Amino acid sequence: MKRYRVIGKSVLKKESWDKVSGRVKYIDDHQEVGTLHVKLLTSTYAHAYIGNVDTTEAWKVPGVRAIVTGKDYPLLIGTTIKDRPLLAFDKVRYYGEPIAMVIADTEAIAIQAVTLICVEYKPLRVVNSPVEAYQKDAPLVHDQIEQYLIDQDADTTGTSGGIRPVPGTNIANRQGIRKGNIERGFARSDVIVEEVFSFKQSDHTAIETRCADVEIKKTGEVIIHSASQEPFEMRELISQTFNIDEGKVHVHIPLVGGSFGAKTSVQLEPLAYVASKAVGGRKVRLRNSREEDIVTSPVHIGLHAKVKMGCTRDGKLQAIKLFFLFDGGAYAERAVPVTKAAAFDCTGPYTIDHVWCDSLCMYTNHPYATDFRGFGRTEVAFGVERTIDIMANKLGMCPLEFRLKNAIQPGDTSPTKVLLNKSNLGDIRECLLQLRELIDWDRGQRIDISDRIVRTKGISCTWKNGDPPPGVGAGAILTFNSDGGININCAAIEIGQGTKTVLTQMVAEKMKMDVDDVFIQMEVNTQLSPEHWETAASRTTFLSGNAVLRAVEDAIRQLKRTAAIILKVPVDELEVANKKVYKKTSPSISIDFSEIVYGYIFPDGKVAGTQVVGRGTYMIPGITEMDPVTGRGIQGPEWGVVAQAVEVEFDKRDNTFKLIRAVSVADAGTILNYKGAETQVMGAMNMGLSFATREGFLYDDQGKVLTTQFRSYKVMHYGEQPEYIVRFIENPVKGAPFGSRGLGEHGIMGMPAAVANSLSLAANVSLQQLPLTPEFIWKTRLKAGEVY
Amino acid sequence: MLHFNFDYYRPSSIDEAVELFDKLDQDGKKPIYLSGGTEITTLGRLNQVFTKAVIDVKGIPECNVLDYKQDSVVVVGAALTLTQVWESKILPLLGEACVRIGDRTSRNQITLGGNLASEIIYREAVLPLLLSNSTFVVAGIEGIRQLSVHKIFKEKLRLKRGEFLVQIKVDGKYRKMPFYIEKKRKSERVDYPLITLEALKVDRSIRLAISGLCAFPFRSYEMEKELNNTDISIEERIDRAILRIPAPVISDIRGSREYRIFVLRNTLLDALIYLGGVRA
């Protein structure tokens, strides 16, 4: 293993001290005198025609500057299917959908006025689950999907493209996988199991709720400040929707206070643009309350999954047939790419020759969905990994041995028929073998502590390829300070994942200088930074890292060229380190960066070199379009793999449980920042356990979400977490910065399945729904006759 | 954030407070008494509470009393926070109920009086007060009244318009009696209860009060009677007590009716075992 000076070290995040001392400023912390405030009026029905929207009383509140209703802007927007009205007109399709907005001097005035708007609703039959949506006689959430436009960027068949809504149904898109011959696969199987799994939509619950400021200058320039993961897509969307030159739209993104996929969707910004326009371009702020952030803004997708698996008597998996009905909610938006990606990696990291999968993105009268950490894999793994355990159990095999036996290997192909090798596939076997030691697997999967208390362990294996559409890339610019220090300019957004710090480590490593001499701006500004595809898909370090490394090479070339003239040494005999250029064979012949970074002038006035500006750009090669029916294609550069375990202590009388230990062994490729990697995985594990054991919306029978506050929507509290153990193996990836693999999402993916496997063993019933509340476990046991 | 403005008053005596209320009420200000203020914030931002004037009772000395002398009465001011009541250890029966409400940050703000007068159905601080036959001291324009908890707290605190809770008084003998308290939640450590059950052993009999099971907290003599019937097995006593639940058991996002009863059954068993005389 190659040793590095800075890479792999636990360098503190550049923003750490500001964060822990409460000094970091998020958008809503900035207050500017003269800013007007916007408040949304949201729907109290999940599905209804809207009649008259009476704003008479609202206008009477002193301080109200403007009121905008859906009829004022009958526009349809969306980054996949353009199906979503800016503000609902005609009808509302989910509880919490924006209908109108008030712009006023203060937020309090705007809220007061919003409460005085009267809306006439004519309730419609509600589509309250993806299964209901799939029925032949189901009401249609969208009557005429065939008339909707598809976003022009989504017209290819990558993860975000090739979208085909099915007219006369609630199907927004269908993505297939056809590998081998499914009938033959089952024919070769001695044992077949078929199970159904489900969970409802839930929320990301980032601490910073979504917020956007928009101002339209007299020059026509649109200045946006937003908490978002995708400034460039936002710029394009605003430009196209409102017919403004893209060069006039400037998006600023400061540090973002957590996202987990929530802020990939562009929602508040076009609304704030319209609000600003309504008040003559004055700066307006639109910020979500927690309730709005949970229900009005996009959510984490729900799923109803049917899993059928076939296996030989000696434990070799033959076939898997998967049918997914995803609860994408009222609008397609990014639910479509999530449901497509779910199909691409649908088997998990196993060798299965015969794969059939149909992944349907269903319209329902629920809040609409967007990316969520794991991007379809967490969801699918819950069903597939539970079924793996059910199958192992039926065969009388150890679930860990069973997984080892079927672990995918170089030479196999993915469900999308990509040939796997040591570089593009992490080593799941090695992960499993380490996991076995760390969780003391061989001491027993089930240990009775007392008559009532039992301790059990459950495991799972998952994998994920980042799935950017073809043609995505990043750019980076390096400038120098007069003392030779370096500034990085790139549009990777810091959402807590630590990318910015890792980029400074890469520059320091490559320049052989101190990481404290490398600086990076936290804010991203689309006017200044080179374009970067969204900060998503665990691809940011990969994309910007490659761009930054190329920029370093470019800067080194320039530095050496200048130094060669001054030192009178050929370029190829020069090296850089410690902010100096020196001659390899006699390092005392050197010149400091500080003397040359802005160019060098000889006493006679001759110039050697000019200012050094490093420039680097990168585009991921090799990604292809994906066939919508067979799924054939290359969806991304590499599969990261992870094996995970959860140990619980279950009370057989009360049906309550404690999380004792959770372990992850992930293939990091190469670790870039040890503590950073460890805490990324640990945080994701916690999120996965919280999602699996507590979260999930509850709806009433009219589709109204009942859990829109933290007092009803519960996430895991600090102190309730188990002991976390995170370990890495390192199998470098070709073409990735220092060989690193994506890690931002991997910690979450197997957690729901692992904890469900553990609890199923403890409770002696098969748990196939989330969240795994004590009441759900009790009811399942009651039905199975396990308790009375 | 509250989107409406209101006047804020902080009187320093009971008389001043009740007179202020009377005047503001006549002026159409819809005044409300405020103590910790958490519920006004909670419900106000949802438009479920509206006022143009709040009267903060935290400045009234009688509302801040925390007193107990040998062999006498425990007096606790209504404006003390749940944290203060718990930390004082003046009445463990009450303190242990208080410390199970909300989280620490909330308890530093929520007051005893505020919890007892809450619009939210749980009002868990009343459980020990029901068990100990406490006395409530309330003030109104007509003067101060002292009433038995059983008279003034029926499902909720029954104050006349313009009245506020000043103190509660509990006989000092309850400081040392054995009791059992358990709060069962859906899955979190911080949440409203599925049920909160408190049981007190007085001489050889058990008193029982429960919150979260029905739409209001209660003490049930009928259930107590069944539980104290030592002629039959413990399971039978619990079965019979469950038949005596005084109102419909609620079903909501925290748990179904059936599950609440399941949880109640186990918790009653634990309570009876803990308070002695019974083996599991």
TrEMBL record, chain A:
SUPFAM superfamilies: CO dehydrogenase molybdoprotein N-domain-like, Molybdenum cofactor-binding domain. Residues 21-125 form the Aldehyde oxidase/xanthine dehydrogenase a/b hammerhead domain. InterPro entries: Ald_Oxase/Xan_DH_a/b, Ald_Oxase/Xan_DH_a/b_sf, Ald_Oxase/xanthine_DH-like, AldOxase/xan_DH_MoCoBD1, AldOxase/xan_DH_MoCoBD2, AldOxase/xan_DH_Mopterin-bd_sf. Coiled coil: none annotated. GO terms for molecular function: iron ion binding; oxidoreductase activity. It comes from the Bacteria. This is Xanthine dehydrogenase family protein molybdopterin-binding subunit. It comes from Peribacillus asahii.
TrEMBL record, chain B:
Residues 1-175 form the FAD-binding PCMH-type domain. Keywords: FAD, Flavoprotein, Oxidoreductase. This is Xanthine dehydrogenase. The keyword Flavoprotein applies. Pfam families: FAD_binding_5 (PF00941). One of its GO terms (molecular function) is oxidoreductase activity.
